[in-house]
Amino acid sequence: MMVSITHASSLFLLFSSALSFTPCPLLGPAFPPFTLNATDKTVASALQSLTEAFDTLVATNTGDHGDVSPNTTFSIALFSSDPRDAEDEPFFWQYHHTAPAWNQSLAGSHTANKDSIYRAGGLTEVFTVWSLLLTDGGDQILDDPVTKYLPELVDDTKDQDAIGHVAWHDVTVGQLASHMSGVARDYCSKDGTLQESFSEARLPTLPATQKPCCGNCPKCSGSEFIRHLANETPVALAGVTPSYSNMAFQLLGYIVERRTGKPFSKVLQNDIFDVLGMTATSIFAPANPSAGIIPVSKEVSGWLANHGADEASTSLFSSIKDLATAGQAILNSTLLSSSVTNRWLKPASHTSNPANSIGLPWVIYSGGSYPNTSMVDVYTVLSNEGYNESLYSSYLGIVPDFGVGFAILSADTEAPADLNAHADIIGDVVLEALMVTAIEQAAKNFGGAYKSSAINSSITVQYDTLPGLYIDEFISNGTDFRETLSELLAIADPADLSIRLYPSQLESHFTAGSRQAFRAVFQDKSELADYGTPTCVSWLNLDKFHYGGRALDEFVFELDQGGRAVGVEIPALQVELRRK
Which positions fall inside the Beta-lactamase-like ARB-00930-like C-terminal domain (predicted)? Predict the structure, then answer.
Protein backbone atom coordinates (compact mmCIF):
# COMPACT_ATOMS: atom_id res chain seq x y z
CA MET A 1 0.00 0.00 0.00
CA MET A 2 1.14 3.52 -0.75
CA VAL A 3 -0.20 6.48 1.17
CA SER A 4 0.04 9.99 -0.23
CA ILE A 5 -1.92 13.21 -0.22
CA THR A 6 -0.96 15.96 -2.60
CA HIS A 7 -4.22 17.48 -3.69
CA ALA A 8 -5.24 21.06 -2.93
CA SER A 9 -8.65 22.51 -3.52
CA SER A 10 -9.56 25.79 -5.09
CA LEU A 11 -12.57 26.08 -2.82
CA PHE A 12 -10.68 28.31 -0.46
CA LEU A 13 -10.23 30.95 -3.14
CA LEU A 14 -13.86 31.60 -2.35
CA PHE A 15 -12.80 33.39 0.78
CA SER A 16 -10.15 35.63 -0.78
CA SER A 17 -11.20 39.07 0.27
CA ALA A 18 -10.18 42.62 -0.36
CA LEU A 19 -10.73 43.23 3.35
CA SER A 20 -7.49 43.82 5.20
CA PHE A 21 -8.85 42.19 8.37
CA THR A 22 -8.19 38.49 8.70
CA PRO A 23 -10.21 36.67 11.36
CA CYS A 24 -8.75 33.96 13.58
CA PRO A 25 -11.43 31.24 13.58
CA LEU A 26 -11.65 28.31 15.93
CA LEU A 27 -10.71 24.87 14.66
CA GLY A 28 -13.80 23.09 13.40
CA PRO A 29 -16.84 24.13 11.38
CA ALA A 30 -16.93 27.84 10.65
CA PHE A 31 -20.71 27.75 10.29
CA PRO A 32 -23.59 25.84 11.92
CA PRO A 33 -24.63 22.43 10.56
CA PHE A 34 -26.48 22.72 7.27
CA THR A 35 -28.91 20.51 5.38
CA LEU A 36 -27.44 19.06 2.22
CA ASN A 37 -30.10 18.90 -0.47
CA ALA A 38 -28.92 17.48 -3.79
CA THR A 39 -31.71 19.40 -5.55
CA ASP A 40 -30.63 22.73 -4.07
CA LYS A 41 -29.55 25.09 -6.85
CA THR A 42 -25.97 25.50 -5.60
CA VAL A 43 -25.40 21.81 -4.87
CA ALA A 44 -27.20 20.56 -7.99
CA SER A 45 -25.12 22.87 -10.17
CA ALA A 46 -21.93 21.63 -8.52
CA LEU A 47 -22.90 17.98 -9.02
CA GLN A 48 -23.62 18.66 -12.70
CA SER A 49 -20.23 20.34 -13.02
CA LEU A 50 -18.65 17.37 -11.28
CA THR A 51 -20.19 14.95 -13.76
CA GLU A 52 -18.99 17.10 -16.64
CA ALA A 53 -15.49 17.27 -15.15
CA PHE A 54 -15.24 13.49 -14.99
CA ASP A 55 -16.73 13.16 -18.47
CA THR A 56 -13.92 15.39 -19.71
CA LEU A 57 -11.31 13.47 -17.71
CA VAL A 58 -12.21 10.09 -19.19
CA ALA A 59 -12.59 11.55 -22.69
CA THR A 60 -9.21 13.31 -22.73
CA ASN A 61 -7.28 11.38 -20.01
CA THR A 62 -5.92 14.68 -18.70
CA GLY A 63 -6.97 17.71 -16.69
CA ASP A 64 -5.85 20.44 -14.32
CA HIS A 65 -4.43 17.83 -11.95
CA GLY A 66 -2.42 15.86 -14.48
CA ASP A 67 -2.81 12.88 -16.76
CA VAL A 68 -4.70 9.71 -15.95
CA SER A 69 -4.55 6.25 -17.46
CA PRO A 70 -7.05 5.46 -20.23
CA ASN A 71 -7.15 1.88 -18.91
CA THR A 72 -8.67 2.67 -15.51
CA THR A 73 -12.17 1.54 -14.63
CA PHE A 74 -13.52 3.33 -11.56
CA SER A 75 -16.58 4.02 -9.41
CA ILE A 76 -17.12 7.08 -7.20
CA ALA A 77 -19.75 7.91 -4.59
CA LEU A 78 -20.36 11.04 -2.51
CA PHE A 79 -22.15 10.47 0.78
CA SER A 80 -23.57 12.65 3.55
CA SER A 81 -24.18 12.21 7.25
CA ASP A 82 -27.84 13.01 6.58
CA PRO A 83 -29.48 9.83 5.23
CA ARG A 84 -32.38 11.87 3.86
CA ASP A 85 -30.09 13.31 1.24
CA ALA A 86 -29.48 9.92 -0.29
CA GLU A 87 -33.07 8.72 -0.70
CA ASP A 88 -32.79 4.97 -1.34
CA GLU A 89 -28.99 4.93 -1.45
CA PRO A 90 -26.32 5.80 1.12
CA PHE A 91 -24.90 8.38 -1.33
CA PHE A 92 -26.19 11.48 -3.13
CA TRP A 93 -24.03 11.27 -6.27
CA GLN A 94 -22.31 8.48 -8.16
CA TYR A 95 -20.12 8.16 -11.22
CA HIS A 96 -18.86 5.08 -13.04
CA HIS A 97 -16.49 4.63 -15.93
CA THR A 98 -15.65 1.36 -17.63
CA ALA A 99 -12.41 1.58 -19.60
CA PRO A 100 -12.53 0.50 -23.28
CA ALA A 101 -9.88 -2.13 -22.58
CA TRP A 102 -12.18 -3.90 -20.15
CA ASN A 103 -13.48 -6.34 -22.74
CA GLN A 104 -10.10 -8.08 -22.41
CA SER A 105 -11.01 -9.23 -18.91
CA LEU A 106 -11.63 -12.94 -18.65
CA ALA A 107 -13.79 -12.89 -15.52
CA GLY A 108 -16.24 -10.83 -13.50
CA SER A 109 -18.46 -7.96 -14.59
CA HIS A 110 -17.69 -5.89 -17.68
CA THR A 111 -19.67 -2.85 -16.54
CA ALA A 112 -18.96 -0.82 -13.41
CA ASN A 113 -21.88 0.23 -11.18
CA LYS A 114 -22.69 0.93 -7.55
CA ASP A 115 -22.72 -2.77 -6.68
CA SER A 116 -19.47 -3.64 -8.47
CA ILE A 117 -16.91 -5.27 -6.19
CA TYR A 118 -13.30 -4.12 -6.26
CA ARG A 119 -10.33 -5.03 -4.14
CA ALA A 120 -10.20 -2.15 -1.62
CA GLY A 121 -6.83 -3.20 -0.20
CA GLY A 122 -5.47 -0.75 2.36
CA LEU A 123 -8.92 0.61 3.26
CA THR A 124 -9.00 -2.50 5.46
CA GLU A 125 -7.08 -0.44 8.03
CA VAL A 126 -10.10 1.77 8.73
CA PHE A 127 -12.16 -1.29 9.62
CA THR A 128 -9.35 -2.75 11.71
CA VAL A 129 -9.20 0.40 13.85
CA TRP A 130 -13.00 0.57 13.92
CA SER A 131 -13.22 -3.00 15.21
CA LEU A 132 -10.61 -2.19 17.85
CA LEU A 133 -12.67 0.79 19.06
CA LEU A 134 -15.75 -1.43 19.25
CA THR A 135 -14.16 -3.75 21.83
CA ASP A 136 -14.82 -3.32 25.55
CA GLY A 137 -13.28 -0.10 26.81
CA GLY A 138 -13.36 1.61 23.43
CA ASP A 139 -10.44 3.90 22.73
CA GLN A 140 -9.02 3.52 26.22
CA ILE A 141 -7.04 0.64 24.76
CA LEU A 142 -5.00 3.02 22.59
CA ASP A 143 -2.70 4.03 25.44
CA ASP A 144 -2.05 0.44 26.51
CA PRO A 145 1.31 -1.14 25.68
CA VAL A 146 1.11 -3.73 22.92
CA THR A 147 2.70 -6.26 25.26
CA LYS A 148 -0.39 -6.19 27.50
CA TYR A 149 -2.20 -8.16 24.80
CA LEU A 150 0.70 -9.81 22.96
CA PRO A 151 3.21 -10.72 25.70
CA GLU A 152 5.05 -13.05 23.29
CA LEU A 153 6.54 -9.95 21.67
CA VAL A 154 8.96 -9.42 24.55
CA ASP A 155 9.71 -13.01 25.46
CA ASP A 156 12.66 -13.27 23.09
CA THR A 157 13.69 -9.63 22.67
CA LYS A 158 13.87 -8.03 26.10
CA ASP A 159 17.65 -8.31 26.30
CA GLN A 160 18.39 -7.32 22.67
CA ASP A 161 19.90 -4.04 21.46
CA ALA A 162 17.59 -1.17 20.47
CA ILE A 163 18.86 -0.92 16.88
CA GLY A 164 18.34 -4.54 15.95
CA HIS A 165 15.09 -5.17 17.82
CA VAL A 166 11.91 -3.25 18.60
CA ALA A 167 11.52 -2.10 22.21
CA TRP A 168 8.05 -3.58 22.32
CA HIS A 169 7.32 -2.49 25.88
CA ASP A 170 7.51 1.13 24.62
CA VAL A 171 5.04 0.63 21.74
CA THR A 172 1.37 1.41 22.39
CA VAL A 173 -1.71 0.10 20.62
CA GLY A 174 -2.46 3.62 19.42
CA GLN A 175 0.99 3.93 17.89
CA LEU A 176 0.37 0.76 15.87
CA ALA A 177 -2.89 2.28 14.59
CA SER A 178 -1.40 5.71 13.77
CA HIS A 179 1.78 4.72 11.88
CA MET A 180 3.86 5.90 14.86
CA SER A 181 5.10 2.53 16.16
CA GLY A 182 8.38 2.49 14.24
CA VAL A 183 7.94 -1.21 13.43
CA ALA A 184 8.82 -2.75 10.06
CA ARG A 185 6.63 -2.00 7.05
CA ASP A 186 5.92 -5.56 5.87
CA TYR A 187 6.48 -9.04 7.12
CA CYS A 188 7.90 -11.46 4.57
CA SER A 189 5.75 -10.58 1.55
CA LYS A 190 8.21 -7.94 0.29
CA ASP A 191 11.36 -9.87 1.24
CA GLY A 192 13.91 -9.79 -1.58
CA THR A 193 14.76 -13.44 -1.04
CA LEU A 194 11.35 -14.20 -2.46
CA GLN A 195 11.83 -12.07 -5.57
CA GLU A 196 13.10 -13.80 -8.69
CA SER A 197 15.01 -10.74 -9.91
CA PHE A 198 17.22 -10.77 -6.81
CA SER A 199 18.65 -14.17 -7.69
CA GLU A 200 20.70 -12.55 -10.50
CA ALA A 201 22.01 -9.63 -8.44
CA ARG A 202 25.02 -11.51 -6.98
CA LEU A 203 23.88 -10.84 -3.42
CA PRO A 204 25.28 -12.92 -0.55
CA THR A 205 23.94 -16.43 -0.27
CA LEU A 206 21.55 -16.75 2.65
CA PRO A 207 20.94 -19.82 4.78
CA ALA A 208 17.61 -21.57 4.47
CA THR A 209 15.00 -19.71 6.52
CA GLN A 210 12.21 -21.09 8.61
CA LYS A 211 10.28 -17.83 8.37
CA PRO A 212 6.55 -18.60 8.06
CA CYS A 213 5.39 -16.37 5.21
CA CYS A 214 1.77 -17.48 5.14
CA GLY A 215 1.28 -17.10 1.40
CA ASN A 216 -2.04 -18.35 0.00
CA CYS A 217 -2.76 -20.53 3.00
CA PRO A 218 -4.79 -20.41 6.21
CA LYS A 219 -4.05 -17.36 8.30
CA CYS A 220 -0.83 -17.44 10.33
CA SER A 221 -1.76 -17.14 13.96
CA GLY A 222 -0.68 -18.04 17.44
CA SER A 223 2.23 -17.25 19.73
CA GLU A 224 4.87 -18.84 17.54
CA PHE A 225 4.15 -16.55 14.60
CA ILE A 226 3.97 -13.46 16.82
CA ARG A 227 7.46 -14.33 18.07
CA HIS A 228 8.69 -14.20 14.49
CA LEU A 229 7.22 -10.71 14.18
CA ALA A 230 8.95 -9.76 17.43
CA ASN A 231 12.36 -10.17 15.89
CA GLU A 232 11.85 -7.80 12.96
CA THR A 233 14.28 -4.86 12.84
CA PRO A 234 12.68 -1.52 13.79
CA VAL A 235 12.50 1.45 11.43
CA ALA A 236 12.56 4.09 14.15
CA LEU A 237 11.98 4.58 17.84
CA ALA A 238 8.30 4.42 18.75
CA GLY A 239 6.60 7.80 18.82
CA VAL A 240 9.23 9.83 16.97
CA THR A 241 8.18 9.83 13.29
CA PRO A 242 5.41 8.45 11.07
CA SER A 243 6.43 5.26 9.27
CA TYR A 244 3.82 3.30 7.38
CA SER A 245 3.48 -0.33 8.46
CA ASN A 246 1.22 -3.12 7.27
CA MET A 247 2.75 -5.29 9.97
CA ALA A 248 1.41 -2.95 12.64
CA PHE A 249 -2.13 -3.65 11.46
CA GLN A 250 -1.45 -7.35 11.38
CA LEU A 251 -0.64 -7.07 15.08
CA LEU A 252 -3.80 -5.02 15.67
CA GLY A 253 -5.77 -7.87 14.13
CA TYR A 254 -4.28 -10.25 16.67
CA ILE A 255 -5.13 -7.81 19.48
CA VAL A 256 -8.77 -7.68 18.31
CA GLU A 257 -8.82 -11.48 18.42
CA ARG A 258 -7.36 -11.59 21.92
CA ARG A 259 -9.85 -8.97 23.11
CA THR A 260 -12.94 -10.58 21.59
CA GLY A 261 -12.08 -14.26 21.60
CA LYS A 262 -13.21 -14.45 17.96
CA PRO A 263 -11.36 -14.62 14.63
CA PHE A 264 -10.65 -11.18 13.21
CA SER A 265 -12.68 -11.80 10.05
CA LYS A 266 -15.69 -12.82 12.15
CA VAL A 267 -15.45 -9.65 14.22
CA LEU A 268 -15.59 -7.47 11.10
CA GLN A 269 -18.35 -9.57 9.56
CA ASN A 270 -20.57 -9.78 12.64
CA ASP A 271 -19.94 -6.39 14.28
CA ILE A 272 -19.62 -4.10 11.24
CA PHE A 273 -20.57 -5.60 7.87
CA ASP A 274 -23.72 -7.41 9.02
CA VAL A 275 -24.88 -4.62 11.33
CA LEU A 276 -24.59 -2.00 8.59
CA GLY A 277 -25.92 -4.23 5.80
CA MET A 278 -22.66 -4.20 3.84
CA THR A 279 -23.54 -7.30 1.81
CA ALA A 280 -20.92 -6.73 -0.92
CA THR A 281 -17.98 -6.48 1.51
CA SER A 282 -15.71 -9.34 2.50
CA ILE A 283 -12.29 -10.22 3.82
CA PHE A 284 -10.50 -11.53 0.72
CA ALA A 285 -12.34 -12.10 -2.56
CA PRO A 286 -15.98 -13.20 -2.53
CA ALA A 287 -16.67 -16.77 -3.61
CA ASN A 288 -18.85 -15.56 -6.49
CA PRO A 289 -16.88 -13.22 -8.81
CA SER A 290 -19.82 -12.27 -11.02
CA ALA A 291 -20.02 -8.71 -9.61
CA GLY A 292 -16.27 -8.33 -9.50
CA ILE A 293 -14.27 -5.78 -11.47
CA ILE A 294 -11.36 -8.02 -12.47
CA PRO A 295 -8.78 -6.59 -14.90
CA VAL A 296 -7.05 -9.02 -17.27
CA SER A 297 -7.54 -12.12 -15.11
CA LYS A 298 -8.01 -13.23 -11.51
CA GLU A 299 -4.36 -14.18 -11.26
CA VAL A 300 -2.81 -11.06 -12.80
CA SER A 301 -5.13 -8.54 -11.11
CA GLY A 302 -4.51 -9.60 -7.54
CA TRP A 303 -8.12 -10.71 -7.14
CA LEU A 304 -7.00 -14.11 -5.81
CA ALA A 305 -4.54 -12.70 -3.25
CA ASN A 306 -5.11 -14.50 0.02
CA HIS A 307 -2.07 -13.78 2.15
CA GLY A 308 -3.10 -14.59 5.70
CA ALA A 309 -0.70 -12.07 7.17
CA ASP A 310 -2.52 -9.26 5.31
CA GLU A 311 -5.96 -9.97 6.75
CA ALA A 312 -6.04 -6.85 8.94
CA SER A 313 -4.19 -4.56 6.52
CA THR A 314 -5.00 -5.13 2.83
CA SER A 315 -7.61 -7.89 2.52
CA LEU A 316 -10.83 -5.90 2.00
CA PHE A 317 -13.10 -6.26 -1.05
CA SER A 318 -16.07 -3.91 -1.33
CA SER A 319 -18.35 -1.72 -3.46
CA ILE A 320 -18.82 2.06 -3.37
CA LYS A 321 -22.35 1.51 -2.05
CA ASP A 322 -20.98 -0.37 0.95
CA LEU A 323 -18.13 2.08 1.51
CA ALA A 324 -20.61 4.97 1.44
CA THR A 325 -22.66 3.09 4.03
CA ALA A 326 -19.57 2.71 6.20
CA GLY A 327 -18.54 6.35 5.79
CA GLN A 328 -22.02 7.53 6.68
CA ALA A 329 -21.95 5.32 9.80
CA ILE A 330 -18.61 6.82 10.89
CA LEU A 331 -19.91 10.38 10.46
CA ASN A 332 -23.11 9.55 12.36
CA SER A 333 -21.41 7.54 15.15
CA THR A 334 -23.76 4.68 14.32
CA LEU A 335 -21.59 2.02 15.97
CA LEU A 336 -19.51 4.17 18.34
CA SER A 337 -20.42 6.88 20.79
CA SER A 338 -20.03 10.41 19.46
CA SER A 339 -17.28 11.10 22.01
CA VAL A 340 -15.21 8.17 20.73
CA THR A 341 -15.81 9.23 17.11
CA ASN A 342 -14.70 12.79 17.91
CA ARG A 343 -11.47 11.47 19.38
CA TRP A 344 -10.99 9.06 16.47
CA LEU A 345 -11.29 11.88 13.92
CA LYS A 346 -8.37 13.86 15.31
CA PRO A 347 -4.66 13.98 14.40
CA ALA A 348 -2.10 11.87 16.24
CA SER A 349 1.04 13.44 14.76
CA HIS A 350 2.40 15.88 12.20
CA THR A 351 4.23 14.70 9.10
CA SER A 352 7.11 16.47 7.37
CA ASN A 353 4.51 18.01 5.03
CA PRO A 354 2.78 20.91 6.85
CA ALA A 355 -0.43 20.18 4.94
CA ASN A 356 -0.63 16.58 6.23
CA SER A 357 -1.13 15.05 9.63
CA ILE A 358 -1.53 11.43 10.70
CA GLY A 359 -4.51 9.84 12.41
CA LEU A 360 -5.73 6.32 13.18
CA PRO A 361 -5.12 5.28 10.38
CA TRP A 362 -5.96 8.49 8.56
CA VAL A 363 -3.76 10.69 6.44
CA ILE A 364 -5.29 14.08 7.19
CA TYR A 365 -5.15 16.76 4.54
CA SER A 366 -5.51 20.22 6.10
CA GLY A 367 -7.12 22.45 3.54
CA GLY A 368 -7.46 26.17 3.88
CA SER A 369 -5.15 29.13 3.69
CA TYR A 370 -4.88 31.06 6.91
CA PRO A 371 -5.48 33.96 7.38
CA ASN A 372 -8.16 34.10 4.69
CA THR A 373 -9.96 30.87 5.51
CA SER A 374 -10.86 28.36 8.17
CA MET A 375 -9.04 25.05 8.10
CA VAL A 376 -11.04 22.08 6.78
CA ASP A 377 -9.57 18.68 7.55
CA VAL A 378 -10.15 15.79 5.15
CA TYR A 379 -9.56 12.38 6.75
CA THR A 380 -8.36 10.00 4.06
CA VAL A 381 -6.97 6.58 3.35
CA LEU A 382 -5.46 5.93 -0.09
CA SER A 383 -4.54 2.41 -1.11
CA ASN A 384 -2.21 1.78 -4.02
CA GLU A 385 -0.15 -1.34 -3.41
CA GLY A 386 2.03 -1.13 -6.51
CA TYR A 387 2.16 -2.90 -9.83
CA ASN A 388 3.71 -6.09 -8.41
CA GLU A 389 0.94 -6.47 -5.81
CA SER A 390 -2.34 -5.79 -7.59
CA LEU A 391 -3.99 -3.65 -10.25
CA TYR A 392 -6.38 -2.02 -7.77
CA SER A 393 -6.46 1.39 -6.06
CA SER A 394 -8.95 2.81 -3.60
CA TYR A 395 -9.58 6.05 -1.77
CA LEU A 396 -11.84 6.97 1.15
CA GLY A 397 -12.25 10.55 2.35
CA ILE A 398 -14.30 11.98 5.23
CA VAL A 399 -14.88 15.67 5.96
CA PRO A 400 -16.35 15.91 9.48
CA ASP A 401 -16.81 19.71 9.33
CA PHE A 402 -19.23 19.34 6.42
CA GLY A 403 -20.64 15.91 7.30
CA VAL A 404 -19.72 14.53 3.87
CA GLY A 405 -17.29 12.09 2.32
CA PHE A 406 -16.30 10.24 -0.83
CA ALA A 407 -15.33 6.73 -1.85
CA ILE A 408 -13.37 5.82 -4.97
CA LEU A 409 -12.65 2.28 -6.15
CA SER A 410 -10.63 1.52 -9.27
CA ALA A 411 -8.89 -1.16 -11.29
CA ASP A 412 -6.51 -0.81 -14.23
CA THR A 413 -5.37 -3.29 -16.86
CA GLU A 414 -1.71 -2.24 -16.63
CA ALA A 415 -0.86 -0.62 -13.27
CA PRO A 416 -2.81 0.57 -10.20
CA ALA A 417 -4.21 4.05 -10.78
CA ASP A 418 -3.05 7.18 -8.99
CA LEU A 419 -6.39 8.49 -7.71
CA ASN A 420 -5.18 11.87 -6.49
CA ALA A 421 -6.44 13.56 -9.66
CA HIS A 422 -9.91 12.11 -9.06
CA ALA A 423 -9.92 13.34 -5.45
CA ASP A 424 -8.68 16.76 -6.59
CA ILE A 425 -11.65 17.16 -8.91
CA ILE A 426 -14.04 16.35 -6.09
CA GLY A 427 -12.34 18.92 -3.86
CA ASP A 428 -12.34 21.60 -6.53
CA VAL A 429 -16.03 21.32 -7.31
CA VAL A 430 -17.94 19.91 -4.36
CA LEU A 431 -16.31 21.41 -1.30
CA GLU A 432 -16.66 24.91 -2.68
CA ALA A 433 -20.37 24.36 -3.24
CA LEU A 434 -20.78 23.00 0.27
CA MET A 435 -19.06 26.03 1.77
CA VAL A 436 -21.32 28.33 -0.20
CA THR A 437 -24.31 26.29 1.01
CA ALA A 438 -23.12 26.57 4.61
CA ILE A 439 -22.91 30.36 4.31
CA GLU A 440 -26.28 30.66 2.58
CA GLN A 441 -28.08 28.56 5.16
CA ALA A 442 -26.31 30.25 8.08
CA ALA A 443 -27.40 33.65 6.76
CA LYS A 444 -30.97 32.44 6.32
CA ASN A 445 -31.25 30.63 9.64
CA PHE A 446 -29.29 32.97 11.94
CA GLY A 447 -28.87 36.35 10.28
CA GLY A 448 -30.82 39.42 11.32
CA ALA A 449 -31.83 41.43 14.37
CA TYR A 450 -32.56 40.03 17.83
CA LYS A 451 -34.25 42.21 20.46
CA SER A 452 -35.54 41.94 24.03
CA SER A 453 -39.15 42.87 24.68
CA ALA A 454 -38.41 43.80 28.31
CA ILE A 455 -35.32 46.01 28.13
CA ASN A 456 -33.33 47.91 25.51
CA SER A 457 -31.02 45.05 24.55
CA SER A 458 -30.35 43.83 21.01
CA ILE A 459 -27.79 42.40 18.63
CA THR A 460 -27.56 42.22 14.85
CA VAL A 461 -26.06 39.06 13.33
CA GLN A 462 -24.46 39.51 9.90
CA TYR A 463 -22.33 37.52 7.45
CA ASP A 464 -19.71 38.20 4.80
CA THR A 465 -17.23 36.14 2.79
CA LEU A 466 -15.04 35.42 5.82
CA PRO A 467 -15.39 32.45 8.20
CA GLY A 468 -18.12 32.68 10.81
CA LEU A 469 -21.08 34.94 11.44
CA TYR A 470 -20.42 38.29 13.08
CA ILE A 471 -22.20 40.67 15.45
CA ASP A 472 -22.59 44.21 14.19
CA GLU A 473 -24.74 46.26 16.57
CA PHE A 474 -24.63 45.16 20.22
CA ILE A 475 -26.82 47.01 22.76
CA SER A 476 -27.12 45.89 26.40
CA ASN A 477 -29.71 47.59 28.58
CA GLY A 478 -29.43 50.81 26.62
CA THR A 479 -25.63 50.93 26.44
CA ASP A 480 -23.32 50.23 23.51
CA PHE A 481 -21.80 46.98 24.69
CA ARG A 482 -19.16 47.15 21.97
CA GLU A 483 -17.65 50.05 23.90
CA THR A 484 -17.69 48.00 27.13
CA LEU A 485 -15.96 45.07 25.45
CA SER A 486 -13.45 47.36 23.74
CA GLU A 487 -12.42 48.84 27.08
CA LEU A 488 -12.09 45.35 28.57
CA LEU A 489 -9.92 44.27 25.63
CA ALA A 490 -7.90 47.52 25.48
CA ILE A 491 -9.12 48.31 21.95
CA ALA A 492 -9.00 52.08 21.44
CA ASP A 493 -11.76 52.38 18.84
CA PRO A 494 -14.92 50.24 19.34
CA ALA A 495 -15.33 50.20 15.55
CA ASP A 496 -12.16 48.08 15.41
CA LEU A 497 -13.67 45.34 17.58
CA SER A 498 -14.52 42.20 15.60
CA ILE A 499 -17.04 39.85 17.22
CA ARG A 500 -17.32 36.66 15.15
CA LEU A 501 -19.42 33.66 16.15
CA TYR A 502 -18.37 30.03 15.68
CA PRO A 503 -20.39 26.92 16.61
CA SER A 504 -19.00 25.02 19.60
CA GLN A 505 -20.96 21.92 18.49
CA LEU A 506 -22.75 21.82 21.85
CA GLU A 507 -26.43 21.14 21.17
CA SER A 508 -29.52 20.17 23.13
CA HIS A 509 -32.75 18.97 21.56
CA PHE A 510 -36.34 19.22 22.73
CA THR A 511 -39.78 18.62 21.23
CA ALA A 512 -40.20 22.05 19.64
CA GLY A 513 -36.66 22.43 18.32
CA SER A 514 -33.11 22.71 19.65
CA ARG A 515 -30.50 24.97 21.23
CA GLN A 516 -27.04 25.51 19.73
CA ALA A 517 -24.12 27.08 21.56
CA PHE A 518 -21.66 29.45 19.88
CA ARG A 519 -18.50 31.11 21.09
CA ALA A 520 -17.47 34.59 20.03
CA VAL A 521 -13.90 35.44 19.07
CA PHE A 522 -12.98 39.02 19.94
CA GLN A 523 -10.27 40.60 17.79
CA ASP A 524 -8.79 44.03 17.24
CA LYS A 525 -9.05 44.68 13.50
CA SER A 526 -6.35 47.36 13.71
CA GLU A 527 -3.81 45.12 15.41
CA LEU A 528 -0.57 44.64 13.48
CA ALA A 529 -0.08 41.18 12.02
CA ASP A 530 3.10 39.18 12.57
CA TYR A 531 5.17 39.82 9.46
CA GLY A 532 5.70 36.64 7.46
CA THR A 533 4.54 34.36 10.29
CA PRO A 534 0.77 34.60 10.59
CA THR A 535 -0.47 33.35 13.94
CA CYS A 536 -3.95 32.34 15.02
CA VAL A 537 -4.31 31.96 18.77
CA SER A 538 -7.99 32.66 19.39
CA TRP A 539 -8.19 29.37 21.29
CA LEU A 540 -5.98 30.92 23.99
CA ASN A 541 -8.65 33.49 24.86
CA LEU A 542 -11.83 31.39 24.83
CA ASP A 543 -13.85 31.67 28.04
CA LYS A 544 -11.42 34.28 29.36
CA PHE A 545 -13.81 37.04 30.50
CA HIS A 546 -16.76 36.26 32.76
CA TYR A 547 -19.61 38.14 34.37
CA GLY A 548 -21.77 36.51 37.04
CA GLY A 549 -20.07 33.18 36.47
CA ARG A 550 -20.81 32.95 32.72
CA ALA A 551 -18.47 33.77 29.85
CA LEU A 552 -18.98 36.97 27.88
CA ASP A 553 -18.19 35.07 24.66
CA GLU A 554 -21.07 32.56 25.10
CA PHE A 555 -24.16 32.83 22.89
CA VAL A 556 -26.91 30.18 22.80
CA PHE A 557 -29.37 30.23 19.90
CA GLU A 558 -32.83 28.70 20.10
CA LEU A 559 -33.97 27.02 16.87
CA ASP A 560 -37.39 25.85 15.76
CA GLN A 561 -38.06 22.43 14.25
CA GLY A 562 -37.05 23.70 10.82
CA GLY A 563 -33.60 24.76 12.05
CA ARG A 564 -34.35 28.51 11.98
CA ALA A 565 -33.14 30.60 14.92
CA VAL A 566 -36.01 32.26 16.81
CA GLY A 567 -33.99 33.71 19.66
CA VAL A 568 -30.62 33.94 21.36
CA GLU A 569 -29.61 33.83 25.01
CA ILE A 570 -26.56 35.71 26.30
CA PRO A 571 -26.10 34.01 29.69
CA ALA A 572 -23.53 36.44 31.10
CA LEU A 573 -25.90 39.38 30.49
CA GLN A 574 -28.91 37.39 31.76
CA VAL A 575 -30.92 38.30 28.70
CA GLU A 576 -32.90 36.46 26.04
CA LEU A 577 -33.44 38.17 22.70
CA ARG A 578 -36.09 37.21 20.17
CA ARG A 579 -35.49 37.34 16.45
CA LYS A 580 -37.43 40.11 14.73
Answer: 438-579
